[in-house]
Amino acid sequence: THTHTHTHAVEFVIVTMSEKHQGEGKDVIWKPSQLMFIPWYHPHVDRHKAEIMIGSNGFYGSYLLRDASTAGDFVVTVKNQRAVSHFEVSHIPNSCSYKFGSKRFDSLDEFVNHFADSPFLKSTTDVRVVLQTPYNRDDDEEESFVEVGEHVAIEELEHEQEDLEKDMTSKLVAVSREGWLRKRGKFVKSIKNRWFVLVNAKLVYYEKETSAQPKNTLDMTACEYVKECTQRNLQKHGFGMEAKFGDRVLYMFAKTKSEQKLWLQSLQAAMGGNTPLS
User: What does the alpha-carbon distance between residue 255 and residue 69 come to, in Å, rounded to a whole number?
Assistant: First the structure.
């Protein structure tokens, strides 16, 4: 249990950056050896793991620092009264500095000291929270979530009923996966990158990893089928997949064949498919 004395608060606004540095060819400014001195830095935690950990075990105002999906950038994950929010810490191109909200930090020490002042956070969706308690690293806890987002896990449920043969809920398929996929628009057939999260038969996609609100949420148990997309005119977008929800077919594209295979396995398992899990 961590305690933190609240001294004073500095309010600032987390803004969506219109131009995001993609991290190609840039130096790593905050090095892992330095970051490991921060107790609340979690090097092996992604968005989904962070939400489970801090959502289940954190308190209002708990926060942690983790790596972003963009190389060299970071994310501060925070538990507020309603949910868990994510805020960008972005490297400023051609500098040794980072931007967090409206503030610029020229060193890692300056960034860490800022949190000692228990600042206010206010997102573009008007979510307001005071950062009060750092959520410190626990290797045992992180190890328990190491498989989340990596492969399909099937969890057996205990049932009091003796006759389980007819009980369709005798097994809960707990599918977890997340990552970038390309997606074709429903009405305008343009191709856009979206951050997809699959957990407990819900497929959710966001504009970016740190977005607070999803663009859409789909129920995989209502999906008619998920299969590899073989349309020649779409193969230029990547390794395609198609999922049919009623009168809509969702087209998604992975960067590699192996990513496509893993996503297909997870999606089909989430809808109750019989795809081999190995």
Answer: 15
Contact call for residues 204 and 221 (beta carbons, < 8 A): no
User: Considering only CA atoms, which of 45, 110, 98 is closest in space to residue 72?
Assistant: 98
Spatial contact of 75 and 88, defined as CB atoms under 8 Å apart: yes
**Hey, how many other C-beta atoms are within 10 angstroms of the C-beta on 16?**
12
What element of type H or E holds 144? helix 139-144
Residue type, 172: L
The larger pLDDT score, comparing residue 253 to residue 56, is at: 253
In the chain, the amino acid numbered 76 is V
Q: What is the mean pLDDT of residues 36-56?
A: 89
Tens of pLDDT, residue by residue over 146-191, are: 444 343 333 333 343 444 433 333 333 334 688 889 998 776 678 8
Amino acid at 271: M
The closest of 137, 109, 108, 122 to 45, measured between CA atoms, is 137
Give which of 80, 91, 90 is closest to 123, Cα–Cα. Answer: 80
Residues 209, 214: Cα–Cα separation, whole Å:
10
pLDDT of residue 1: 45
**pTM, entire model:** 0.51
Beta-strand relationship, 128-130 and 11-13: unpaired
CA count, 13 A, side-chain hemisphere, 244: 7
Q: Is the pLDDT of residue 96 over 60?
A: yes
Query: Residue 196 in contact with residue 205, Cβ under 8 Å?
Result: yes
Q: How far apart are CA 46 and CA 147, in angstroms?
A: 11
- Quote the DSSP letter at residue 92: P
Tokens, residue 247: 């009168």
Angstrom distance (rounded) from CA 137 to CA 19 = 31
